[in-house]
């Protein structure tokens, strides 16, 4: 048997692809021969009807829909005309990636799972659902380990004759029995008070020797915990396989390069893009919050060249941002590559690399510079994956530091990895600063850094007001130097935008250009019939698209005397009336002109001590409750469309719960029945969310 199986991924931002590649590598090392493809290659590179064994890694986009790359495949297998034995030859498993901050967690992987079953395919290993809200690796790692065992079982049996739907949950003993030698390195750690001694007992490669951890290091609680195991990890530890090197950088000091002539991220397609990249001019930036506000919000106005991009209120667009210059410089210095950082460098595949399917990442130009890659192409803030940490440990000379890095990426150190790396989101530079004897070659670092992704923002303007101007609003993300983070930082994009705004919008300075592109959004739009009532609910920057909606309706009314606009209600929430009530004067104006039928604002911090919520509502949902009869009437009798925008972590869930509660009371039905009504509203496109974390 050739031990071949089909390995597919459906990726929007690259995460599913990265996980599929991880599976590919691991499977290959276990002697399997995965055939790896994007779902977009359906019928070109694979034909699922002809396959026996399939592993699918797929994510869910905001509304629980398939990623763009999976749409064609999804349409194919969804066809109603397909018989229910269409995939009866196929045994499969799915690893779904999602984020439980959003409603419909992993809805898309569930839909695929259900459809495969309807078409007669059967599981050979249970579907897994990994949650980005708590850490994908919590599910991904054990799921992949179990998959290797399940594949062994498949190939030790005759796939054709396996019967029954293999819903393996938990893994059957027989799979555990065939769990043989682990591909990863094993390390023995024996505690010898006050020091820890580690001994490498890898079956494949010797990844280190006896090491000693300095247990006297007590520089601050969290830092000391990052630097040493508290409590110590005892006994044998298992660390992930060392990623195979696959890139080589060749420097040509005599050549020069015009970095401005390079395509952005080597011309690689941007996620959810419906246009190419457009260079917009940042013409104005206005601070919408008072100095003593908890967060600083900026409204930015962009000028877009005539007819390059059309948008509608409710649309979002992507901003192709840059990493912080100082942070990039610090990485360059720390990796001791200052002398070549600005030289022309050729990026090539390392000759004789053992990495299967190795390729220069699509988002990197093959002729570039180190600084350019680190500034514009690579995500230098990504919390380091375990394989990355193992690689760093290999290039760490001080034995206690090396041992600690090995612990942090070990199976036994999983909870420490979560607490000290993932949760505080420690970046490459954090680790380099915390472990001074770690100095990996730049090529190994570039191999491990994922792509710097653009950030989406919702338009807070209407093209009817000015066709070639676009506004958006954002909070500057501030991330303090606590929890092991070695330096304070701003969010990548919001930090970059705020710097552009403050430094470059001086009189006489040329206005900065920023690269943007339109993103697909077919749902979060105003109803085509303007007489349909709308209910808008947003907190903080979630008010952005609603400003666009309101200005759009106002412009439509001004353009035609016969224009009939239905009632528009806005529920807005912020902390303090005087500090962070975004677009206050504009909202009050729109309310006074009658465009906005009802403006209801809740101030969470002004009213935090108020006993009577009916007089001093704290959150948007308090106001919804206070006006529940009218809101239910609009929604259930007048067929209003409801829009929720903003923070996915709390607000959208609280609003959802409030609606389920008020609908059940209004109609005297159970909350379960109210939930089904809400589901129906969602399906009909009358409960729309545009939320982000
Ligand atoms: P990043 O560098 O990406 O950092 C953000 C991350 O830092 C957070 O996810 C969190 O993990 C971490 N973090 C933040 N604060 C802390 C802290 N105190 N301590 C520790 N860690 C912390 N945003 C808007 O402001 N306005 C919009 O209109 C808007 N529209 C959007 C529309 C869509 C469809 C989507 C998906 C998102 C939208 N966003 C919007 C969010 C926006 O895209 C960015 O995610 C946000 O601005 C942060 O980007 P950043 O690069 O500055 O931060």
Walk me through what this model shows.
The protein is α/β, with parallel strands linked by helices and 693 residues long. Helix 7 crosses helix 8 and helix 17 packs parallel to helix 19 (651-667). Among the domains are: 4-156, Rossmann fold (3-Layer(aba) Sandwich), CATH 3.40.50.360; 534-692, 3-Layer(aba) Sandwich (Rossmann fold). Helix content is 31%, strand content 21%. It starts with a strand and ends with a strand. The chain is globular, with a radius of gyration of 27 Å. Strands 1, 2, 3, 4, 5 and 6 form a 6-stranded parallel sheet that branches. It has a 6-stranded antiparallel sheet with strand order 17-14-21-12-13-18, covered by helices on one side. The chain has a 5-stranded parallel sheet with strand order 24-23-22-25-26, with helices on both faces. Residues 160-185 and 189-224 have low confidence and may be disordered. The structure holds flavin-adenine dinucleotide (FAD).
Write the layout of secondary structure elements.
Elements lengths: L3 E7 L4 H15 L3 E6 L14 E7 L11 H8 L12 E8 L8 H12 L3 E2 L4 E4 L5 H20 L16 H5 L7 E8 L2 E6 L10 E3 L7 H7 L7 E5 L7 E6 L25 E10 L9 E7 L12 E5 L4 H10 L9 E6 L17 E2 L1 H8 L8 H9 L4 H10 L5 H9 L5 H7 L7 H7 L6 E4 L10 E7 L2 E2 L9 E2 L1 H13 L8 E6 L15 E6 L4 H16 L8 E7 L9 H9 L5 E6 L16 H7 L1 H10 L3 E7 L3 H17 L3 H13 L3 E6 L1
Parallel strand pairs: 1-2, 1-3, 3-4, 4-5, 4-6, 22-23, 22-25, 23-24, 25-26
Antiparallel strand pairs: 7-8, 7-10, 8-9, 11-15, 12-13, 12-21, 13-18, 14-17, 14-21, 15-16, 19-20
Helix pairs in contact: 7-8, 7-12, 9-10, 17-19, 19-20
């Amino acid at each position: 048997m050739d031990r071949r199986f089909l390995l597919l991924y459906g990726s929007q931002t690259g995460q599913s692809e990265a996980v599929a590649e991880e599976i590919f590598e691991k499977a290959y090392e276990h002697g399997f021969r995965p055939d790896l493809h994007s779902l977009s290659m359906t019928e070109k590179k694979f034909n699922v009807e002809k396959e026996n064994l399939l592993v699918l890694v797929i994510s869910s986009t905001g509304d629980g829909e398939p990623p763009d790359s999976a749409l064609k495949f999804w349409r194919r297998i969804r066809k109603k005309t397909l018989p229910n034995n269409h995939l009866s030859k196929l045994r499969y498993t799915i690893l779904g990636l999602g984020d439980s901050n959003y409603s419909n967690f992993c809805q898309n992987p569930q839909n695929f799972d259900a459809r495969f079953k309807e078409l007669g395919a059967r599981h050979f290993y249970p579907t897994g659902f990994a949650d980005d809200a708590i850490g994908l690796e919590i599910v991904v790692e054990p799921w992949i380990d179990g998959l290797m065992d399940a594949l062994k079982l498949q190939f030790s049996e005759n796939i054709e004759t396996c019967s029954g739907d293999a819903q393996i949950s938990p893994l059957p003993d027989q799979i555990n029995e065939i769990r043989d030698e682990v591909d990863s390195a094993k390390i023995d750690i024996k505690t010898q008070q006050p020091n820890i001694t580690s001994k490498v007992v890898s079956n494949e490669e010797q990844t280190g020797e006896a090491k000693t951890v300095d247990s006297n290091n007590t520089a601050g609680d969290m830092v000391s915990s990052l630097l040493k195991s508290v409590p110590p990890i005892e006994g044998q530890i298992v660390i992930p396989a060392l990623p195979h090197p696959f890139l080589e950088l060749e420097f040509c000091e005599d050549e020069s390069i015009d970095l401005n002539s390079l395509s952005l991220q080597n011309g690689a397609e941007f996620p959810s893009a419906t246009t190419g990249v457009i260079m917009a001019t940042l013409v104005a930036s206005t601070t919408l919050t008072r100095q003593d506000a908890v967060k600083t919000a900026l409204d930015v106005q962009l000028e877009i060249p005539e007819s390059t991009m059309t948008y509608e209120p409710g649309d979002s667009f992507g901003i192709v941002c840059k990493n912080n210059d100082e942070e990039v410089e610090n990485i360059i210095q720390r990796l001791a590559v200052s002398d070549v950082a600005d030289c022309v460098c050729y990026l090539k595949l390392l000759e004789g690399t053992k990495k299967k399917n190795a390729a220069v990442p699509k988002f990197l130009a093959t002729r570039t510079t180190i600084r350019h890659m680190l500034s514009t192409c690579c995500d230098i803030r990504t919390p380091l994956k375990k394989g990355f940490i193992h690689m760093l440990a290999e290039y760490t000379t001080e034995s206690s530091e090396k041992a600690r890095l090995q612990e942090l990426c070990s199976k036994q150190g999983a909870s420490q990895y979560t607490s000290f790396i993932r949760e505080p989101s420690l970046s490459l530079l954090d680790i380099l600063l915390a472990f001074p004897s770690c100095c990996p070659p730049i090529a190994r670092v570039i191999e491990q850094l994922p792509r710097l992704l653009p950030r989406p923002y919702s338009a807070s303007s209407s093209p009817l007001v000015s066709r070639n101007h676009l506004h958006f609003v954002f909070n500057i993300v501030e991330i303090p130097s606590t929890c092991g983070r070695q330096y304070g930082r701003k969010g990548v994009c919001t930090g970059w935008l705020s710097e552009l705004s403050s430094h470059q919008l001086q009189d006489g300075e040329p206005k900065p250009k920023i690269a943007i592109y339109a993103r697909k959004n077919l749902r979060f739009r105003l109803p085509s019939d303007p007489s349909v009532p709308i209910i808008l609910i947003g907190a903080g920057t979630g008010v952005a698209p609603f400003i666009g909606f309101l200005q759009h309706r106002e412009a439509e009314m001004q353009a035609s005397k016969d224009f009939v606009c239905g009632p528009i209600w806005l529920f807005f929430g912020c902390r303090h009336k005087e500090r962070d009530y975004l677009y206050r004067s504009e909202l009050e104006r729109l309310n006074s002109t009658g465009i906005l039928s009802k403006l209801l604002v809740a101030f969470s911090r002004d009213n935090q001590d108020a006993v009577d919520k009916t007089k001093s509502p704290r959150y948007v949902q308090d106001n919804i409750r206070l006006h529940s009869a009218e809101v239910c009437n609009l929604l259930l009798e007048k067929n209003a469309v409801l829009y929720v925008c903003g923070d996915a972590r709390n607000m959208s869930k609280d609003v959802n719960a409030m609606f389920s509660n008020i609908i059940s009371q209004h109609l005297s039905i159970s909350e379960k029945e109210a939930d089904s009504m809400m589901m129906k509203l969602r399906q009909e496109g009358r409960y729309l969310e545009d939320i982000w974390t």
